[in-house]
Design goal:
Bound molecules: zinc ion
Distance between the termini: 56 Å
Structural class: mainly alpha
Number of strands: 0
Length: 147
């Protein structure tokens, strides 16, 4: 994970927040970024577990409730172990989704709404024209008088 990845991640979070449609290439990038992010988060959780469990060797610890700080740290260590495991599983799904999205191509849907090549109004049925008036105008090179 580098600064560019974090910037892109922020942009994707914003897109998700806005429920913005994502292009296939953006989905491909997002899957790869999710894999990177979860891999980095798993490494961080593993390090946090090790550091948590090492604290009693470095400090005299106390728990502000009067409970055993060792038991509290053991709980954190266990939770970080579970978090590491879950993040590693999420990384596999992100990586496999990234590989799968890499096989998806895009073609123009001939039934998708298009714009009239004469007046830019929406067309239907894959036509290049919104109306006979525009079809005739394009064929004759003339413009109807009310344009
Ligand atoms: Zn038209």
């Amino acid at each position: 994970m580098d600064a560019e990845d974090l910037t892109k991640f922020g942009e994707l979070l914003q897109a998700a927040h806005e429920r913005r449609a994502l292009e296939v290439s953006e989905l491909y990038d997002a899957c790869g970024l999710l894999a990177k992010l979860t891999r980095a988060a798993a490494a961080l959780a593993g390090h946090m577990r090790a550091e948590t469990l090492a604290l009693p060797g470095r400090y005299i610890l106390r728990d502000d409730t009067g409970d055993d700080p060792g038991a509290r740290l053991a709980e954190v260590g266990q939770r970080m172990e579970w978090a590491t495991d879950l993040l590693q599983k999420a990384e596999v799904h992100g990586r496999r989704s990234h590989a799968a999205m890499g096989h998806i191509g895009v073609e123009v849907n001939p039934r998708a709404p298009k714009e009239c090549i004469v007046c830019s109004e929406p067309t239907t049925g894959g036509s290049d024209y919104c109306s006979d008036r525009c079809r005739i105008a394009d064929a004759t090179g003339e413009q109807p008088p009310d344009w």
